[in-house]
Amino acid sequence: MRKLFIFVLPLNFLAYSQTPAVGPPEAPFVLRVTSDLVLLDVSVKSGSGERISGLTKENFKVYEDGKLQALTHFSTEDVPVTAGLVMDTSGSMRAKRPEVITAAMVFIGASNPKDEIFVVQFSDSAKLSLPENIPFSSDVSQLRNALWKGTPDGRTALNDAIILALKHLEMGRRDRRALVLVSDGGDNSSLHNAGDVLQAVLESRATIYTIGVYDADDPDKNPGVLKRLASISGGETFLQAELASLKGICEEIASDIRTRYTIGYVPVRSGEEGASRKVRVAVSSASGGKFIAHTRTRYILPPNRAAAN
What is the pTM assigned to this prediction? Predict the structure, then answer.
């Protein structure tokens, strides 16, 4: 049974007051705040799996470390995001590559036309695949070329790829951030370890969707890693996905990204700086029906920059 979730995407998970940017047409999509702000992008579904729209701020309650929070922001807009496609190009993916790339192109086509997208490929090492002078793109041809770049070969540096993708997301101009990872979950070539990845995910503003592409007898598969990444970040995971189902999965992920509620609150600064905080979102129904929401389960509150300054 597929998980339903609430979805954390971003403004710097925590946004700080800053001088408004002057520049390109993207500016209207930037949310400005005057204090710390935790933003949760939320996808709500019924018990039978139907996506629920039309909810209001009053339908949501957010708890941090068990304490009810006062909501200061609520939005239902389909705004552009910064998104990364993180693609396994190790030798084990060679035969599956055409279907995987076709599904990735379906994701691009179903996304907001103003999204800024990048591609990370990983085998023995992880690397960005767009031209060096193009950090992000919404151009279908450029993204297709990036996806087809190189030949699948070698081992699997999954941890390094996630770290690289999360760092690159920080260069994006969109407040909302997401990664779509296609992998078997195994790692046998990274410089970074699982602890490094966990720390980076907790500090990140990204929601991570994971698609497990592997055979039942694949010795390198690690579905637990894929589930953990999606659960902690507030995303969704699709395990042992059939190649024929990849296009539908990618279309579903793109739709989910575009139909979220964004709710925000100002956290109370008390206790140890840099400590992990637990988050839970509850959604009520006027009709008494059961709504299911998943969100980032934890995050790390960054140091108080205003106080430091």
Answer: 0.85
